[in-house]
């Protein structure tokens, strides 16, 4: 299997994203030229070694499980397990692939279960997942009946992990990951729902990020915005001096109330805070499939309510908002 984007171009040529073809192929051609070195070529060699097998056993509604124990001979299953480990670290999941449980760092299903009761039904919708990681939530979006799901994330490793799952999901053509950042997308105004989960605090300008998300939505479309927050009122924002929970590139961590004001300032309507939850070591931890440091290592060992730098420990909020039907004057 070689990663290319021709199938995606063929798909969008026939749907509401066809205007994207004026810019996207040239962008991705440049990306492919720039990624012929580093680890990406070796990861593509791993992808080529996967067995060609179709399965009737795909569950993307209650979990992400493709294939079933026994469909591959034991020797082939063991070989597959070794190949999947080549894509360490697996951060978002969990996944089951032909009886192999990929126990990822994040129990991303926890987040999905928190937000699902609050979002508009995804059935028949075009959905964009910004900063999608390896695509776990994209499969759950498809499992909720979305018609077409696109994720953007610049990571080579996440792209290879996503293509791995899609390969064993009978090469599903209703879900695609593109190795781009949100700032590289034109104003498509084509998606019914746009998700941004775990991205905002990495952006130098959070207001610009919210406006970029808005520019991808159809009139009346829904924004689902999830990010780290602190306690406080409408004017409370944490700006870490260096790292936050050992993460670099963290710029602004607002309170949920401040975040709601930011979204309203970007002319969204019906802005709602639907969930605020502390991040626990049950949801984020080291595993066999992600052996690097994780949340336990990022918290103050004497006071887990603080990060190792002394900031409030991670707490995450979900905000849902509606793009106006008509542009405000």
TrEMBL record:
Its EC number is 2.5.1.-. It catalyses: carboxy-S-adenosyl-L-methionine + 5-hydroxyuridine(34) in tRNA = 5-carboxymethoxyuridine(34) in tRNA + S-adenosyl-L-homocysteine + H(+). GO terms for molecular function: transferase activity. It comes from the Bacteria. The keyword Transferase applies. Pfam families: Methyltransf_9. Keywords: Transferase, tRNA processing. The keyword Protein transport does not apply. Carboxy-S-adenosyl-L-methionine binds at residues 92, 106, 111, 131, 153-155, 197, 201, 316. Belongs to the class I-like SAM-binding methyltransferase superfamily. CmoB family. Homotetramer. Catalyzes carboxymethyl transfer from carboxy-S-adenosyl-L-methionine (Cx-SAM) to 5-hydroxyuridine (ho5U) to form 5-carboxymethoxyuridine (cmo5U) at position 34 in tRNAs. This is tRNA U34 carboxymethyltransferase. It comes from Motilimonas cestriensis.
């Amino acid at each position: 299997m070689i990663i290319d984007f021709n199938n995606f171009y063929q798909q969008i040529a026939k749907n509401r994203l066809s205007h994207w073809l004026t810019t996207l192929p040239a962008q991705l051609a440049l990306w492919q030229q720039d990624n012929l070195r580093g680890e990406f070529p070796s990861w593509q060699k791993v992808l080529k070694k996967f067995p060609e097998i179709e399965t009737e056993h795909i569950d993307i509604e209650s979990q992400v499980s493709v294939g079933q124990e026994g469909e591959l001979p034991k020797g082939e299953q063991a070989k597959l397990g070794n190949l999947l480990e080549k894509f360490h670290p697996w951060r978002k999941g969990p996944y089951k692939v032909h009886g192999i449980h990929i126990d990822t760092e994040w129990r991303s299903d926890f987040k999905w279960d928190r937000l699902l009761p609050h979002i508009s039904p995804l059935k028949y919708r075009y959905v964009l997942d910004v900063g999608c990681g390896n695509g776990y939530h994209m499969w759950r979006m498809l499992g909720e009946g979305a018609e077409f799901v696109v994720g953007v994330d610049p990571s080579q490793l996440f792209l290879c992990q996503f293509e791995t799952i899609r390969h064993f999901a009978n090469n599903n053509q209703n879900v695609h990951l593109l190795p781009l950042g949100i700032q590289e997308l034109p104003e498509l105004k084509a998606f019914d729902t746009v998700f941004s989960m775990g991205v905002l605090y990495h952006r130098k300008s959070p207001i610009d990020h919210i406006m970029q998300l808005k520019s991808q939505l159809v009139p009346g479309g829904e924004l689902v915005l999830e990010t780290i927050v602190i306690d406080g009122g409408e004017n409370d924002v944490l700006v870490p001096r260096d790292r936050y929970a050992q993460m670099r590139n963290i710029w602004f961590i607002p309170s949920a109330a401040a975040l709601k004001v930011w979204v309203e300032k970007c002319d969204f309507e019906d802005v709602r805070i639907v969930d605020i939850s502390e991040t626990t070591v049950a949801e984020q931890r080291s595993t066999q499939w992600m052996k690097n440091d994780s949340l336990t290592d990022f918290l103050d060992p004497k006071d887990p309510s603080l990060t190792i730098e002394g900031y409030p420990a991670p707490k995450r909020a979900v905000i849902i908002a509606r793009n106006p039907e008509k542009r405000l004057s």
